[in-house]
Amino acid sequence: MNNNGLSICLLAISGVMMPVAQADVKVTPDVVYGHKFGMALTYDVFTPEKDANGAAVLFMVSGGWYSRWSPPEQMKGFFQPLTDKGFTVFAVRHGSSPKFSIAEAVADVRRSVRFIRMNADQYGIDAKRLGVFGLSAGGHLSLMLGTASDEGNPEAMDPVEKFSNRVQSVVAYVAPTDLRIMAKDAPERLPAYDHFSALEIDVREAIADSPLVHVTSDDPPTLLLAGDKDDLVPIEHSRNIQAAFEGAGVKSRLIEYEGAGHGFQGDDAEESRAEMVAWFEATLTEKTK
Questions:
Q1: Which of 71, 84, 136, 159, CA to CA, is 20 to 30 A from 91?
Q2: Element (H, E) at 270
Q3: What's the whole-number mean pLDDT along residues 209-228?
Q4: Which of 202, 198, 224 has its CA nearest to residue 211?
Q5: Alpha-carbon distance 95 to 65, whole Å?
């Protein structure tokens, strides 16, 4: 993968989650939620020290389906708009491109939801109030959790697999929704995708991991945030899945930012941050149950 895509995503994160004065937050780093090829799959937990509201939000640490570790103390400010409102935040890392595929990343984040739900009491959260958000590839993974999850397998040998990986709310920034038009044999594939190892898939492979394909009426409330000048993930990705949500009767909203590209800055960053927090407050807090 070319690091330009990752840099764009990290810039977007910085713009969207600008820190201000921080409330007290307990950080629990590097919790292991699974293993693959002898390596640990981990997340960091950011727990408000007071006024926790019992709901949790998972952040998909992904840009170009590359998942980078960062010192969790450096991430506290990014999540502060949520922790200030009482949300416990989980920064979830997945098996990273180029070693692992998009399909494997999807499987990893599904497991993270199951593991968090299994351990909800330990974290002081309600297993029925889990949200997810992400930017770019992280938005794609968030939408996969929203549209293509399951209730778990009660007959599974692995106790984690017995738990549901469904989420109750989704926010997706500048998210790819149809990998079929990004695949290596897609006629309309943009040249920029040649720099992303994860997109070395064919159209047939892309079907299973395209959120647009999986929209159904039981999907959770979903907020889409996109720039109308995005030349990496064109806004049609968000418009098309929003139309599918509307057709299926799913509670959803698309906010388009005029002139914005792949990531928001200035007033757009501030507004999108506020919209994201408000969406989770409206769909995950106790009063909405």
A1: 159
A2: helix 266-284
A3: 98
A4: 224
A5: 9
Report if pTM > 0.90: yes
What is the Cα–Cα distance from 90 to 133, expressed in whole angstroms? 10
Residue 58: closest CA among 192, 205, 220, 196: 220
Could you report the per-residue pLDDT of 30-57, keeping only the tens digit for each? 999 999 999 999 999 999 999 999 999 9
Q: What is the pLDDT of residues 125-167, one digit of tens each?
A: 999 999 999 999 999 999 999 999 999 999 999 999 999 999 9
The helix-helix angle for 137-147 and 102-118 (nearest 10°) equals: 60
Spatial separation of the C-alpha atoms in residues 142 and 175, rounded to whole Å: 9
CATH, domain range 3-288: 3.40.50.1820
Mean local confidence (pLDDT), 244-257: 98
Side chain identity at 13, as an amino acid letter?
Answer: I
Q: Which two tokens stand for residue 136?
A: 């770019």
Decide if 58 contacts 131 (C-beta within 8 A): yes
pLDDT of residue 288 exceeding 60, the answer is: no
Say if residues 102 and 209 touch (Cβ distance below 8 Å). Answer: yes
- Bridge partners (DSSP) listed for residue 41: 34
State the residue for tokens 């351990």.
119
- Asked if 94 and 105 count as a contact pair (C-beta separation under 8 A), the reply is yes
> What pLDDT does residue 212 have?
98
Distance CA 20, CA 239 (A): 32
DSSP class per residue in 226-266: EETT-SSS-THHHHHHHHHHHHHT--EEEEEETT-BSB--H
The structural domains of the chain, with segments of one domain joined by +, span: 3-288
